[in-house]
Amino acid sequence: MKDMQALCEQARQLWPSEVQALRIDEAGRLGELRCAPQTLPELADWLFNELSYQFAGLIVEEAGRHWELRYLFYGQAGRLYLLSEQPLAERSFPSLSTRVHAADWQEREAEDLFGLVFSGHPRLGDFVLHDDLWPEGLEPMRRSFTGTRPVSDRQARTDWRPRRIVQAPGAFVMPIGPIYGGATESAHFLLETVGEEVIRAFPRLFYQYRGVEKRAEGAPFSQGLLLAERFAARSAFAHALAYSRAIEALSAVELPPRARQLRVFFAELERFRHHLGTIEGICTSTGLAVAASQAALLEEEALRLSGALAGHRYLFGLAAPGGLAHDVPAAACREAVSQAQAIRRRAQELHQRLRRSSSFLDRLEQVGLISPEQARDHGLVGPVARASGLSRDLRQAQPYSGYPSCSFRVPCEREGDGYARLRVFFAEIDQAVELMAQAAQDLPRGPVRAECRPAAGAALGWVEAPVGAAFHWVRLDESGRIMRYRLMTPSFANWHGFHLAAEGFAFQDFPIILATFGLSVAENDR
Amino acid sequence: MTLATLIGIFFALCGAGLLATLALPERQAPRVLAWSGALASFFILWAGAAALLGGESFRLSLWTLPLLGRLSLGLDRMGGLFLLIGGLVTLPVSVFSLGYLQRYQGKYNLRAFGLLYLALLASLALIPLAADAFTFLIAWEAMSLLSFFLVAFEHERQRAVQAGYLMLAVGELGTLAVALAFLLLAGAAGGLDFPALRASSVGLGATMRWTIFLLSFFGFGVKAGLVPVNFWLPRAHPEAPGNVSALLSAVILNLGIYGILRFNGDLLPINSVGPGLVVLAIGVLSALVGILYATIENDLKTLLAHSSIENMGIITASLGAGFIFTATGHPVPAAIAFLAALYHLVNHSVYKALLFLGAGTLDAQLGTRDLDRLGGLLKRMPWLGLFMLIGALSIAGLPPLGGFVSEWLSLQVMLRSVELASVGIKVAFALAGVGLALTLALAVTCFVKTFAMGFLGLARSEVAEAAREGPRSALIPLGFLAGLCLLLGLGATYVIPALDGVVRPLAGTSAAAALVPPFFATHPKQAELPPAFAADFHDLGAQLGKNFLPGRGLVVLHRGGAKNPVIFAMSTAYTFVVLLLLLLVVYLAVHWGPAWRRQVTYQPRWAGGLKKLLPEMTYTATGFANPVRVIFEAIFRPTVVENTQDAAREHFRTLIRREHRQVHLIDRLVLKPIAWGALAIADGLARMHHGRINAYAGYGLLVLLIVLILARLL
Amino acid sequence: MSEWVLQGLRTGIKTTHYPDARERAPGVSPGRPVGGSYPADQAEALLARCPTGALRYQDGQVIIDYRRCVHCFRCARELKTPLTWEMDYEWAGANTPGLTGPFGRSVHILVVDTGDCGACLNEVKQLNNPYYNMHRLGFFITPTPRQADILLVVGALSAPMREPLLQAYQAMPDPKRVVAVGACALSGSLFGPSFACGTGVSELLPVAVEVPGQPPPPLAILHGLLVAVGRRPAVPLSSPNLPMPIPVIEEVHSRP
After folding, report:
1. Cβ-defined contact of B614 to A176 (cutoff 8 Å)
2. Which CATH number does C93-236 carry?
3. C contacts of B612 (beta carbons < 8 Å)
C-alpha cells in the first residue's frame, strides 16, 4: 500500500457506491476522496485502525450553500482528505470519535465554533466557548458572524457546574487556575479526586482563545503570515514555515536551494531552543534549583544566539513564502553551530548530572505514563508520542524543505513515562545540533527567496514543529486574500491525551507531568 | 449536709422523677426528666465533691441477705471522684435532653425514655456507691440493661436494635467475667463486702492473682471499650440518641475504668510487673486503633466513638504505667501516672460529653452528621461552632485546655521509665511512648479535620446551607461544658491536688507534692530549693498565681537535684494570659496602627480567577484524611471496588464509581475467627446428628467414661 | 547533591550589570525602528509595508507608535530607504508616577497571561534566569494577588480572561500598579479588536507602565518594572518623540 492511487482505488472498491475519488496530486502523494457522510466513520475506521493512518485534523468550510468537511489523514502513501458534503441546513454529521478517538477534540471544536452536530459523539459542548464564559449559540466561525467587534451580549450561563464522573464517598473537584503558579499560561484544570490521587483530570483550555482562524479570514496572505508566526511563539518559525509552505503550494514556486537548507537550519535552531526551555520547565517543576538555573542559562544563551543571528530572539520575521525574509551569511551560521555545540555539550553534562540525581529521577520515572496504544488512539504526536514508542516524525514520514537530503535519527523510547520524555528531549537537542551543522556545512550560494504569486485555491503546509506535527490549511481567493485558514497544531493533539498521564498519580506529580509534556496553551487555544 | 443526706436526696429526686413521669401526661416527660435529672445530678455532684475534696466518707448497711451476707453502700475518695464526674456530665445532659427529646415527640414513647433515663441515672450513681460485690453486680447489671434499652430506643431502626443487642451480649460476657472474679476473691475471703475482700487478698497465690486479674480486666475492659473486645462500641454509641451517646461515652466508659481501679488498685492491688505490662500494652493498642479509625471516619458520632476508644486507651496505658511503677517500687512516678490517668478521665468526660452533645445538636438541626456534607457552619451556628472548637482543641491536646495537661502528663510518665532497672520494661515503655505520641499527633489531625470540615469553608450540601443555631436548651449545657474544658486547663494546679486524694492510697505517695510543689509557697520551711533560685523563678513571672490567685501556678515537669537546680515547668494559666496579651497586641496593632495600615477593604475570596468557587471544589473530610488512609493502608486493608461506565468506548468515560470497603481491624482479627469457629463447631455437632440410635448410645457411653476418669483423677 | 552545589559555584556569576551599566551582549534585544524625516514618497512606501498601522506620516516625519510595532522588520528590509534600527532595550513608557516608599526594593509581581503567544511570558520568565536575576533588584513573582504590588499583564486580552484579570486586580491590595507588557497588551496588535480579543489592557484597567515590543526582551521588561517603582526614568512610546494621544482610561471596574 505504498501508492496513493492504489489506496484510493481500494477504498472505492470497498465502498463502490459511496466513495468517489476526486483527485490525486503532488506526484501521487496527495489524494482526496468524496465520501457519503454515513460511510465516513467506516472509511475512517478502516484508514485509522487497519491501515494505521494518522488523523491530522478536521477542516470545516462553509462553501457557498454547502458544508464541506475535510478529514485529513496521513500515512505511508501520503496525505488523504476525506471530503464529506451536506447542505448548510443539515447540521448533523456522523461522529468519527467513537472509532477514531483522535477526532474527538476536532469534532468538539467544530461543534462549538460552527454549530455542527456530530451525532453519536458522547460529549459535545463546553469546549472552546465555555458555557460559563461565552453566550450560547455564538458560532463565531460561521460566515455570517462578524468577528471584528466584541460580542456585545455577553450573558453567559451562571448555573454552570463542572461535569463530574467520579462517584466515590468524599469525592471532590480540585480546581486549578485559570491564574495559577508563578508565570504560567492561563488554563483551567479540574482534577477529580478523593484526596491525594488524581482520579480524573479535565483540562479546560481556551482561556487564551484569540480566534486566529477567524481573524485571518479576509486578510491578505502576507498578513496571514504574521498571524501564523505569532500565535504561538515557542514554535514561531515552524508555524510560519508551515504557512509559507501552504502558500508556496498554491504558487507552484521552486524554492531556492539556499532557502531549503537555511529553513532546516532555523527550524532545528528553534527545536533546540524550545527543548532547552522544556527541560528548564521540567527541572523547575521538580524543584531542583541548580539544575533549573543551569537549564535557564542554556535557554537564554540559545535565545541570544537566535537573536544575534536572525535579529529576533524567537525568530520572528524570518520565514516567508518563497524562502526566507532575509539572508544569513554562511560564516555566521557556522559560528552559530559552534556556539550551539558548546551549549549542547553543557546540556549533555546537565543530562548526565540529572541521571545521577535520584531525587530528580524518582519524580519522573514511572510517573505520567502513556502507553503506545493510548498514544496511538489519542493521536499523540511529537516527542510525547516518540517517548511512548511511536516513531512519528513528519521530517521523515512526509519530508519537506531540506530534510530529504539530511541524515538523522528520530529518537524513540518505549517507557512512556516522564523520564522517557526527558530523554527524548535531550536526544532531540543532540539531533537538532547535528542537523544545524549539516545544514550550515555546504550552504549553497544564491538567493534565499523566490517570488510567490499564489493562485486561488486551497493547500496544505505541514512541518514537524518542536511539539510535533503541525498542519496549516489555507484557502485563498483570486486576490490573494484568505478565505479559510485552518490551524491543526501539535499541542492541540497532545493536550487531548494529557489527562491520561495525569490520572492515577498524586497532586504533587501533576505539575511535573505537565512540564514533561512541554505543551503550549497558546498553540492549542489559537 | 452530710453525705448520707445528699445521697438520700439524690435517690429521692430520682424516685420522684420516676413517679412524676408516670403520673403526668407523656408530653411533660422531657420537662420532668430535665428538672429531676438536673437536680439529682446537682446533688450527686455535691456528694462527689464533698467526698473527693472534703475527704468525708460514708458507710451504710442495707439488708443482710441469707447466703450473700450484708449489703452495704459506701463512699471513699475514689468513689467520690467518679460520682463527681458523673454529676458533671449528667447535669448538662439532663438540661440538654429538654430540647433534644422534642424530635421524638409522637414517634417514640417519651415516657419510657424518661423512666429509663432516670433509672439509669440512679444505677450509675449506685455503682461507685456499692460497697459489696453483690450490690455492685446488681447495679452493674441494671446499668447494662438500662443502657441497652436506651441505645435501642429508636427501635424502629434495625441498626439501633442490632447495635443494642451486640452491646448487651458482649457486656453480659464481661459481667460474667467480673462476677467470676468476685466469686474467686470471695471464695478466699468468705464474704462479699469490700473490706472483707480487701483483707483476704493478702494471702492469695500468684496463679490466683493472675486469674482474678485477667477475669476482672477482661470484664471491665469490655465496658471501657478496650481492644480486642470493643467491637460493640463504634456500633452502639453512634446509634443511641444524642444525649444517651454522651452518657455512654462520658460516664459509662468511666465505670469500666472505675472497675479496673477498684479491683487492681484497691481490692487486690497488683504487686507484679506482668499485669501492669498487659494493661499498658492493651491501653496503647486501644489508643492507636481508636485514633486511626477515628481519623478516617466521617460520621461525626462514629468518629467520636472511635475517639472514646482512643482516650480510654490513653487512660488505661497510664494506669498500666502506674501499676508497673508501683510493682517495681517507684511510688512517685506511679503517683504521677495514676494522676495522669485520672486527669485524663475527667477531661475526657467533659470534652466528650461536649462533643457528643454538639454532634447531637447538629444531627437534630441538620439531620446529618456526615462531615462530607457539612461545611461552613461557623457562620450559621457561631455559638455551637465556638463550643465545638473548644472541645476539639481540648481533645486534640492543645494548650491551654484540659486535654493538653493530661496528655502531656501521660507522655511524661512514659519518659519516667529511665528510672527503672529492667531493660525489657524500658523497651516496653519506649514503645508505649512512641505509640502514645503517634496517637496524640493523629488526634490533632483528626480533630482539625472534624472542626475544619464541619465548620469552615463552604457548605457542601443544602442542609448545611440552611443550618440554624441550636436551641438555648442545647447551647447552655454546651457552654457549661466548654467552660469546664477551659477551667480544667487553666486550673491544672488546683485539679492536681484535688485528684491527689485518690492517687495517694493507690500509689502510696502524693503526686501533687511532685507536680505542684509548694516551694514557692509563703512558708519558708516548705521551700525545697535555695531561696535565691526560687526568687529568680518568681522574678521571671512563672508563678503567676502567687500575686493574684491564692494557689500554685506551675506544674513541674522535671527538676534537677540540689547540685543542678534546674526546673522545667508548665503553666497553662500563664500560657493563657500570654496568649490573651498577644491577641490584644495584634488587635491594637491592627486597629490603632498608622493610618495606612487601617485601610481595610473586603474583597471576595481569590479562587485563581475562577468565575465562581463551587462547594464541590473544596476539600472534603475524606480528602483531608486520605493521606492517613494511604499511609496506614496495611492496617485498614481496604478493598477498592471500582466500576466504570463508558459511552461508546473507554475513552468516553461517563462514570467512575469507587468504593472503599474495609472491615475494622478488630472485627477482622477477633470477631471473624470467633464467628468462624462457632460455625465450625456447630457444623461439627450437626454432623453428629445423623439419626442412628446406636451412635447416640455410643456418645452416652463415651461421656460416662470420661466423667468417671475425671472423677477418679481429681 | 554536592555535585550540584559545585556545579553552581563553577558556573560563576553570569548576571548582567544592568541597570548600573549597559548590557552589550549580542542577541539581548531585537531592536526597533526609529522614526524621522522622510520625503513623502519614501514615507508612503514605508507606511504601506507596516502591517499593524504603527507608522504615521505627519509634517514630513514618519512617526512610529511603539504600542503597535511588532518587529516584523518589513520597514527595515528589502527597502531602498529603510527606517533606521536601534538596538536599545529601555523602552518602557509611564502614565502614572511609580510606586514609591517602602515598595521600592521589595516588589511582588503577579503575572497574568491574557492570551499571549508565549513569547512575552517566556521573556518574563527569563527574568528569573541567572543572566537577569531580577531578585537582586527586589522583584519577585508571586502566585497570588493578595501579596502582589504589580500586576504584570501580557497578551491580547482574550475575552475569557477579562474577568479573571479584573478579579486579580481587585484582589490586590493598594497601592498597586499595572504594567502592560508587549504590543498585544498595549494595543491588541495583530489580534484585536475582535470578538475574542481586546485593544489592550487599558480598556479594562488603569495601566501605569507600558512596555512595547513583541516580545519586549527581558531587559525591556526589567526597565518597565524599574519604571513602575520609580527607579528608572520612562521613555516616550513613540519616535520621534511627539505627544501621542494617551489612551483614555475608562472608569475602572465599569465593564468586566
Report:
1. no
2. 3.40.50.12280
3. none
